[in-house]
User: What shape does this take?
Amino acid sequence: MSLPLDLTSHPHRRFNPLTNSWVLCSPHRTKRPWQGQLEVSPTINLPEYDPKCYLCPGNTRAQGEKNPMYKETFVFGNDFAAVKVETDIGRMNEAEGEANDEADEAPSLFLAHRVQGVCQVICYSPSHNLTVAELSTTSILSIITTWIAETLSAQSLPFVKYIQIFENKGSMMGCSNPHPHGQIWCTSVIPEEPAKELDSMKRYHDKCNKCLLCEYTRMELGKKLERIVCENASFVCLVPFWAIWPYETMIISKRHITSLVDLNQEEKIALADIIGKITRKYDNVFESSFPYSMGIHQAPVDGEEHVWDSHLHIHFYPPLLRNPTVKKFLVGFEMLGEPQRDLTPEQAASRLQQCSETHYKMKSTSSQ
Amino acid sequence: MSLPLDLTSHPHRRFNPLTNSWVLCSPHRTKRPWQGQLEVSPTINLPEYDPKCYLCPGNTRAQGEKNPMYKETFVFGNDFAAVKVETDIGRMNEAEGEANDEADEAPSLFLAHRVQGVCQVICYSPSHNLTVAELSTTSILSIITTWIAETLSAQSLPFVKYIQIFENKGSMMGCSNPHPHGQIWCTSVIPEEPAKELDSMKRYHDKCNKCLLCEYTRMELGKKLERIVCENASFVCLVPFWAIWPYETMIISKRHITSLVDLNQEEKIALADIIGKITRKYDNVFESSFPYSMGIHQAPVDGEEHVWDSHLHIHFYPPLLRNPTVKKFLVGFEMLGEPQRDLTPEQAASRLQQCSETHYKMKSTSSQ
Ligand SMILES: [Zn+2]
Ligand SMILES: [Zn+2]
Assistant: This one.
């Protein structure tokens, strides 16, 4: 006579098999009183062109370089890059590997090594006042085409082992410029998060002889779609069973492919379609611009085989909780203990399912 | 002729042996232009008593309970607890362990289990308008005494395996009430972060037959004190070599003890002293109230022996970067890739070393 675990009402932990970690879920928590900080709502009426924006076409950037009059996307090297290419590769190679702060000490407590890399900025559109949610599928497709071109270009650099494509949207996510843009950081190391995923996926495949994300996607599609937000022929967008952020989602390719460069033309269009769908749904949740960090996880380019320990997917981590000004804070217990959430992933998925795929700003001019 | 790694100028990664993870350091980055969000500065002139505050003495809380006219500290059960004690322990025990969302599926992709626990709130002082930085050593000592009493009390609950003491200070850290207070979450599981530390410390001890934090502290004290912020007879406060947050610090006990309950009277006073020192230094960095999440890591109370895989320490994670309104965001690359910092831990330590141990508000009235 065991009491079954009820994921809709009992405090519980869920396991994230991708990163081998846990999240604490507290679905019983009712709304708590809020006396805290209100975030300023994002400015709504931006100009299509801002003469002071360093990303707008024709404008001059910090280091004096002038942007071209680009029509679709535009890529340039970040003037304040977190990692950079060493001019003297030979000496870099010699210095590579583990280096200690002081050589006479136990190595593991003061371990550091150099990192080489390239940081690129990618403008998504010449229009200062648009976001991905307001771009056409054709415009999103040109972002994807640019991501692929940059991936191929970065792959050709011998020191690059990982290509991390990401976007911070909204001032709440620390984004200092509303002009639609993302970043591409190529590094001589595989960063922590993708390294954890690769490790988990490798262990899963070693054990089951199956791809973890192929299996997960198959199971989710068979489960009355309780966590599926939207899908098309090639991709599914869902709230993962182990999501940390209130409206966190993942876009997963239905076919087992490991990198953007493996996408066929039909899949590129399908990816543009589903990115458009989820970002419009996001904006519709509170009928305001929905901040997030978004990033693509794909196979490293370190010369190793990554057929079964990687599977192309995109994470969306949005901070909003109750309304456009109240965000979730990852503080206190979440920093010292482990991540915690109140709203269940299933409740979040249900809310996102109900949001229209047509952007709220288009409602008055659309018959949908 | 290898080029040595220069931690003050070369982009590099540092290894965190406590959590077995990496942080990317970019010391070459100059100050970047900032067009982003400015945080509202915390209100400065709060009343000593706020009739609307649910933590002030004599006031009534959300569920109708009335606070006593407490003089030092006051502890009560969180009315909106993330975890709770099951009324029917027997059934809870039967349902414990791994439970699947649906029993007919591969267990590892939909793994969840119940969590039991107790969430307490601890008011640090009856004064609504004080923070730890403004409390006397005697008042901080009574907080420590309360932490110890609550730890002993929680240890006696058979289902409690870990006691996480923490504090969120400041609206920037999501704290909804300025009244000085912290929290104690006791859970039937060892949360992620302490579990990672225990694992790393166990592996280190298995390998070297030494305590990782004893060794680390010994080495830091021998290193011309470049990362030491302050110390006393029983504790050292330092910016860890692998710090993520700009002004992150750790307080580590010099004696190998694993829990607050092991502190002797002299050490309790020394702990109060060093908590006072670091929090006053923090407030002095920008001469304003310095937000942070703080938390204590100590041995689990799960019935296992934790003599060598734990060592009492306190983490401070403050978000401020350049001034009291600009905070560091852990977004984008940090969410999708790995944590990154510009200011080096050594630069942060140097800044904190230079800050007075006398609170800036006391300067005019003090001869120090
Ligand atoms: Zn612009
Ligand atoms: Zn109060």
In short: Residues 87-107 of chain A have pLDDT under 50 and may be disordered. Chain A is about 25% helix and 20% strand.
